[in-house]
Design goal:
Strand content: 15-25%
Number of helices: 13
CATH topology of the largest domain: 2-enoyl-CoA Hydratase, Chain A, domain 1
Family: Belongs to the enoyl-CoA hydratase/isomerase family.
Largest sheet: 6 strands, mixed
Pfam families: ECH_1
Radius of gyration: 20 Å
Keywords: Fatty acid metabolism, Isomerase, Lipid metabolism
Low-confidence stretches: none
GO molecular function, one term: delta(3,5)-delta(2,4)-dienoyl-CoA isomerase activity
CATH architecture of the largest domain: Alpha-Beta Complex
Structural class: alpha/beta
Number of strands: 10
Number of domains: 2
Helix content: 40-55%
Order of helices and strands: HEEHEEHHHEEHEEHHEHEHHHH
Organism: Postia placenta MAD-698-R-SB12
């Protein structure tokens, strides 16, 4: 896959590039339906092995949803049941778009800096690894605008963070919290001193390490981790038996052993395109 191939996935508000072989860098300037389409397209690229999600904006990851758009949710004057059905489809489509990060078979590393409010938390919660620049400021902002977060924060964050009391506090109060507090609660795994360029550089370095591993092993690991989150221990163990009954037949295992014996870096084949 060439740089030009990945760059064709760029759109007006999303830039896609390949700064490191096998690593896709997705930079956002706004967040929309293009977001889901972009990640679903990346998922079909067989040479991608890891993704870094960052913002192209100098001041922050995202200030969240456009408040002006909330004023349009009243819509036409139709009776409540029909209006509720319209809103239901709107919310489901939005959820599906953001969940493309989780659907993506490759690990996604979020690199947050500056302001990261509301929708930023929804998106980052769907990522596999979250890094934050030391200047990052987060908030679950929905309570301040009259609604409960409905795009993923309330579903995923309680399963990510180790401090459930703090998750509730932040969701109820909509107060800002720092990168250091985000790290303590387990929302981010690393705080990188500095700003955007520093955290993106660190995220790319991590993605570069991941991209050197067996793509079959990494894809399977993500798939099984997401399954484990939503199932019991025994259900995940049983499912893993079925999954690895197929995946243990990969040529990547032989290549890994060959490389160890030869003291060389393994050369894994590209993943095949989906049928």
């Amino acid at each position: 896959m060439s740089e030009s191939t990945l760059s064709t996935l760029s759109s007006q508000h999303i830039n896609v590039s390949e700064p490191i072989s096998g690593v896709a860098l997705v930079e956002l300037s706004r967040l929309w339906t293009d977001f889901g389409r972009t990640f679903d397209s990346i998922a079909r690229e067989p040479s991608v092995r890891a993704v870094v999600l960052a913002s192209a904006l100098p001041k922050g990851f995202s200030a969240g949803i456009d408040l002006n758009s909330l004023g349009t949710l009243d819509g036409p004057a139709v009776e409540p049941a029909r209006r509720a059905l319209q809103l239901r489809e709107h919310i489901r489509a939005f959820q599906h778009s953001i969940a493309a990060v989780e659907r993506c078979p490759y690990p996604v590393v979020a690199a947050a800096h500056g302001i990261a409010l509301g929708l930023s938390i929804d998106i980052m919660s769907a990522c596999d690894v979250r890094y934050a620049a030391s200047d990052a400021v987060f908030a679950i902002k929905e309570a301040d605008v009259g609604l409960a977060a409905d795009i993923g924060t309330l579903a995923r964050l309680p399963k990510i963070a180790g401090n459930q009391s703090l998750v509730h506090e932040l969701a109820y109060t909509a107060r800002n919290f720092t990168a250091a507090e985000a790290e303590r609660m387990g929302f981010v795994s690393r705080v990188v001193p500095g700003g955007r360029d520093d955290v993106v550089r660190a995220a790319l370095a991590l993605a570069g390490v991941i991209a050197q591993k067996s793509p079959v092993a990494v894809l399977g690991t993500k798939h099984l981790l997401v399954h484990a989150r939503d199932h019991s221990v025994q259900e995940n163990l049983d499912y893993t038996v079925t999954w690895n009954s197929a995946m243990l037949q990969t040529a990547d295992m032989k290549e890994s052993l060959r490389a160890v014996k030869a003291k060389e870096k393994p050369q894994y084949a590209k993943l095949l395109p989906k049928l």
